[in-house]
Amino acid sequence: MSTRAEASTAASETHAGQLNPPIVVATDGSAVSYLAVAWAAVDAGLHGSPLEILTSVAVPGGWGRGALLTEADTEWLRLDGRRVLTEATRVARAAAIGDALTIESDITFDTAIANLIERSRHARLLVVGSRGRGAIRRGLLGSVSTAVTRHAHCAVAVVHTTAALDPVAAEKPVLVGIDGSPHSVPALELAFEEASRRKVGLDALHAWSDTNRVGLPMSGWDAVRERETELLAERLAGYGERYPDVQVRRILVRDRPIQSLLDASQDAQLLVVGRIGRGGFAGMLLGSTSDALLHTVECPMIVVPSGRG
Q: With contact defined as beta carbons under 8 Å apart, do 145 and 159 qualify?
């Protein structure tokens, strides 16, 4: 159970049943984690959600807080965690649009992974950096982003080398990967919502050659393309009426999903993909391929579980 040294109000357990769940962002004091804080502050403002900033001061697994840490050690960790949260709060305030953003901060002696997954039960979104600074008491390494994207109960945003908050990036579209399965629907829902709130267009990319069809004649490829075009149209049906402010660009490619998304993400401010699918976008978010996407895409990326909402 989490030991909380500092919290401006009650923590995420109190958010169960609330109409406006928080956006939770983790920081370890590294530069990329502060980028994640800035991105989370802007996104919280767009949604009108409260922002919770978490830092973990857990020591490496198996050491045990009570066994090895003296009272002085614990106090030092607490003070250092407070320093990280103070800077993170400053970053959030500087990035936030207006003064209405509600910010809470929290220190835990639990590992970041366990704490974030538990908080994800009551959060709108988790936000983490793609990698951390790796100090002995920090939990936010690349393994954290990988673990929470696989196991969180809510969507997870991973911020990489840029938070894409500059004026040029803010004009770029949201990119969503559609694999054709029902599991990609929650990702599509979230992508439309994000594009609408950011007042930008949506690029809907469907890569339909994620299996090898050796020896298929050109006429066969034409039939496959026609079928996949119809499938993409079916998945997008109805969203134009619900989000009339979002201009949609349909991208249909005969290529592997990973490379297609990596290429298209260079002209996007945000990439949204589903976590479970038929072996395309979500299927690739398992195992070593997820690491390739999570830690290669430069723009922020949101991974959406199939049960969202």
A: no
